[in-house]
């Protein structure tokens, strides 16, 4: 598959939708973001791998007030591997209710399904230290 400009735009829109749905608490709409068999890897935060939309929803509910009040995604980069795997890498900024801010890198594998593009795999990596060449 060769990614068209429309495909890349659709992937950008998909990644942007994540923050809107999460911040609005629309957790029953996770199927608009994620494939049925999604693996959401939050191992770096001590939560391991979440499998499926329901597990993502339950993890967000369990966090309760510790969820960010704002998920902001920037610097989205979409590439297609030689084997056809489509990857998106983006930066996330989370604003917490106490005013603190966190930064992450999202490493996604996305695929086109009957309903449109969906995230099949997401690894969330915290950014806790500045660049040190």
From TrEMBL:
This is SnoaL-like domain-containing protein. Residues 5-123 form the SnoaL-like domain. Pfam families: SnoaL_4. The lineage of its organism: Bacteria, Bacillati, Actinomycetota, Actinomycetes, Micromonosporales. InterPro entries: NTF2-like_dom_sf (IPR032710), SnoaL-like (IPR037401). It comes from Micromonospora tulbaghiae.
């Amino acid at each position: 598959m060769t990614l068209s400009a429309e495909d890349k735009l659709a992937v950008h829109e998909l990644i942007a939708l994540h923050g809107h749905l999460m911040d609005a608490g629309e957790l029953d709409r996770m199927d608009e973001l994620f494939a049925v068999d999604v693996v959401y890897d939050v191992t770096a935060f001590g939560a391991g791998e979440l499998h499926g939309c329901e597990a993502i929803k339950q993890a967000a509910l369990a966090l309760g007030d510790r969820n960010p009040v704002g998920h902001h995604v920037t610097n989205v980069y979409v590439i297609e591997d030689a084997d056809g795997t489509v990857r998106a890498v983006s930066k996330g900024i989370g604003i917490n209710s106490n005013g603190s801010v966190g930064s992450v890198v999202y490493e996604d594998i996305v695929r086109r399904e009957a309903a449109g593009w969906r995230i099949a795999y997401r690894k969330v990596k915290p950014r806790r230290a500045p660049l040190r060449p």
